[in-house]
From TrEMBL, chain A:
GO molecular function: oxidoreductase activity
Signal peptide: none
Gene3D superfamilies linked: Nitrogenase molybdenum iron protein domain
Protein name listed in UniProt: Nitrogenase associated protein
From TrEMBL, chain B:
UniProt-recorded name of the protein: Nitrogenase associated protein
UniProt xrefs under Pfam families: Oxidored_nitro
Molecular function GO labels: oxidoreductase activity
Domain of life of the source: Archaea
Location of the Nitrogenase/oxidoreductase component domain: 36-383
Taxonomic source organism: Methanocella paludicola (strain DSM 17711 / JCM 13418 / NBRC 101707 / SANAE)
Amino acid sequence: MDQSKQSRDDKCNDPYLRCAFNGAAQTALGVSRSALLAHSPQGCEYLVNNAFAWQECDYMETMTLCTKLCVDEIVHGGEDLLMRTIREAKDLKIDALFVLSACGPEIVGDDIVAVCEDMQPEVDFKLIPIQSPGFKGSQYDGIDIALDTMIKRLANDDGEKIPNSVCLIAPHANANPTWMADLEWVKQVLSEMGVKVVATLSHKTPLSDIENVPSAEASLILSHDAGQRAADYLSAKYGIEQVCKGMPLPIGMTNTQRWLNALGERFDAQKKAEKMVEEGERMVTATCRRKWPMARFFYRTPAAIVADATVGIPLVRFVTEEMEMTPELVALYSSRSSVRDMLEGELKELGLKPNVVYGTDVYKTRRGLMDVRPKIVFGSTIERHASEGLGVPYTVEVVRPMRQFRLINRAYFGYTGILNLFECVQNEWVLRWRSKDKRYEAKW
Amino acid sequence: MDDDSIVFHGTLSQLLAKVESGEMIPKLQASHAPMCKFFTAYYVINGIRHVVPLVHGPTGCPLYMSDIVRTRECCEERGVPLEPTACTTLDESNVIYGGEGKLLEAVKEADKKYHPDLIVILSCCCSGIIGDDVESIAREAEEQVNCRVLALRSEGFGGDFRSGYEDAFKLIMELMEPPKKKVKGTVNILGARWGPTLTEFNEDMEEVKRLLGEMGVTINAVIAGGCTVDEIKRAREVELNASWCYDWGQKLGDIMQERFGIPYSKTGQPYGLRATKEWMLGIARPMGLEDKALEVIERETEQVQPYLDYLHEALNGKTAIIEISEFPGPIRALSLARMVEEFGAHPVVINVHPYTIKERMPSIKFLLETGVNPEIILTKGLFRLGSFRSSKETEDELEAIVRKYEDPIFFGNSARYPPCPVVNLTLLNPAFQPQYGFRGIKNIAALVRQALEYKDLPRSKLLRGMLYGPK
């Protein structure tokens, strides 16, 4: 964990992020034709269910199991119970069973790695133990733990590299509730540039793709919150070079342009990248000309951004450049040094001096909003309610948790992403101006 | 249906005997995981206004609950303010060296930040195993802050679903002060939960309040369904405790009766006329309000007479297949069984999970004593691997069961597709109608009418396919 001093000093948090166990479950459930066995008391199963939904797993296809540890197993150990539960699952038609250990069994010393090794001959699928107790850190630490385990246990290196290929890392470490659309946009862009995606770590990823990871030429992290550890390992072990490193993700015109150009340069597709930028910017401008988004009325409106780093950092530039607002509070869930460096770089380049809170929790967010009194907040449902009584007229819900779940996955990345974000602002604008008072009664 | 699909077929009392002997508890460790002790304890504590539930553990434990509270049940649906769900965010170093110092500071910080009326420290797996002495920290902290501080041992592994809410209710009793006086005509409603959040069906609570109001009874506190610390402090001043959900409130009612001598009206849920009468008279008699209650019952019965007549006519001679597998749970299913019997139908309750019977043993025994002993069928699908979710297997089994009965009608979840009329008793009923009391009779009659009159309308292939895959 790389928490800021400010975060460490707080003893009482009202956190936004879940624990490492949840992050590991999110990652494991991104592997297709697998099941997940939580070696935990039954309450942790709810965190697994949450991860299940985050990966949009189909419950007709993906199974989640639990050892349901009780006092006896905490006192005497739960390894026998884990073995029994694996035996119960032996007829499942899956390629892998991920065994995740939670706080309890890790503290009492259950050796899930040894149990999986012992049980492996009894089952037809791969047993992959992931030691991911909640106390290991936030959900982002859990994602890193799971990626580390999966790559180290599954990757097969035959030395052959696939030309123009890439491995995508941690697309699910993104607070956009419909992050799958961001991933799709990235894949579309890479395909147009002639770049092959060797593996996505992880979303609907077959086991064979993970085995094949070493054949990638490059890695591309789709999050500012998790995945760097995996990229560093891939670089050191297999010489997989990381592209777009230290660059804000493609939200907004400038970020998208920079990001596409960097990819174009790496994969020798500069012309294609330039064309994408030109066409994308033209499409956005033409659409805005026809639709007249209300965002233009927000000129120099004081804004607050409360989000994960993945969405929050690029949003700073988008809000400043495209919407012409003035970010006066930027509160990020995480506080890794890479996150700090990136945000500080962006603020310096843009000439902004907002209040910045790293590793924010609900209390710090509310305090920040009280200090700044912005007119518009980009955040979640939490900020909508935290803003109550503070005179904040607009809360644009762009990150989880959200009031209304979107059935259609919408990207924030890329050019359509710009329009999607405009639309969020537009809807909030309209709702604000919808009168709740009847000015007169109808005659009939 | 293949009889091999049926794991149990008998009466509730026979099932109870098998569960008590351990015969019916599923051997599969990987099947059906209900809430852990921490969750149910949290539900109760969160039902007190301006409380900080301070979770002494990593961030995973509080977040599921706080997400629900913030995104669905609390702020959005009930319009209550955003309340904190604080956490000490235990990390590896705390697990090794202990987290007591951090906890003490966290309590002080929580007091300073949120100015609550009460802080309840909830221990979870980590803090429980490493042996942090949460009670001592609570005592020590209380001397340094401006509110009461209590500690609750609620480790997820430390007990079952039931133990969480029972222990939480017992803890709440520490707040109850010796009565300065007895306030005539007042009651506490026991066993509600998710206070500032959802109290099961809010509308049922409104009906309960209305009926008590008609009888001239005032509610002191709904424990713990949005009550204040002051209301809990005054809880011993009431004449009587009344149950909201007999299962959740039962232990608290019994202990308050035993320890403080406050009588507890033990009745089932007020579904249908007979149970509603019992519920009202159970409160009115000990309070000397029987005449008033009978007057209200007579007046209200007269108003709903057409609906009662309709329910008799519509349900008489039918087999009512009852399955409440969503939130409202098995106690509601058994209350419904009692109600349909009153209207002349034969109740068959399907797939009440044996875990549920085990965890609700005292309530089930009480219901049996009151004569609730319906036919029960448990199918194989109930014991399958994995989470307890809608499954194709249990849907197929339900359809097969329904085909075996003449003139069946299904009471339950609209996500089921049996070949018979379906009475939509899903938790989030779109009309927000109470099912309790006299208004409940009207609403259930309307739901039965809709089910029978439109039984031939086609069901959504799309939604069915979504839930159970292609036919």
